[in-house]
Amino acid sequence: AQIKEVQFVRSSNRPKDCPKDGRPEFAILGRSNVGKSSLINALVKKKEIALTSKKPGKTQLINHFLVNKSWYIVDLPGYGFAKASESARMDWSSFTKGYFLNRETLVAVLLLIDASVPQQKIDLDCANWLGRNDIPITFVFTKCDKMKGGKGTRPDENIRSFQELIRQNYKQQPPWIMTSSVTGLGRDELLLHMSQLRNF
Ligand code: GTP
Ligand code: MG
């Protein structure tokens, strides 16, 4: 399940511009600052791969990274930017929804949730939307090394209450993994999980 090689392939601004080679892919989704880039860098054990292809502007939205020449990690823009205009948010959401609903090679969405803070409405909205639309999802809880969340909460409590709040929108409880890009917690578990989902 280890990653030997990662290549940046392309940034696409529409789902139909994404690679058409049929290789399986995992989309990395989550709030800005949740630890998306850090997780990708930790997974591939390269410091800045997720940053090197990051181009500003909302037209450069879907970044495909080819792993071991056989499957993709897809970096999506963070949602919930406080500074993004309302119209930019709308564009983001219709664009991303189109990708999730139409991308046939999507194995699963890895939805990153910051376990060091109490649950956020925007994360719940996102998780509920994915659940209602039967999009396969794995919850990846980030920053689990931070033992004290805000308001006296802790990662395990935050995770439990998050799962409780989204439960009714899922037929089955989605898989979930606790991670830390600082300690490496969950890295191998997540790689193994992804290899099981894609069957190789
Ligand atoms: P955007 O690119 O703005 O969407 O953010 P992002 O989701 O890519 O987050 P990024 O990886 O840049 O991390 C945001 C901040 O959280 C940085 O200061 C990281 O050092 C910190 N961070 C990320 N992962 C962890 C983690 O597992 N533990 C701790 N303690 N801090 C983390
Ligand atoms: Mg980032």
Automatic annotation (TrEMBL):
Keyword GTP-binding belongs to the record: yes
Keyword GTP-binding in annotation: yes
Named cofactor requirement(s): Mg(2+)
Keyword list, A-Z: GTP-binding, Magnesium, Metal-binding, Nucleotide-binding
GO MF entries: GTP binding; metal ion binding
Superkingdom of origin: Eukaryota
Domain EngB-type G residues, every copy: 22-200
UniProt record similarity statement: Belongs to the TRAFAC class TrmE-Era-EngA-EngB-Septin-like GTPase superfamily. EngB GTPase family.
Protein name: EngB-type G domain-containing protein
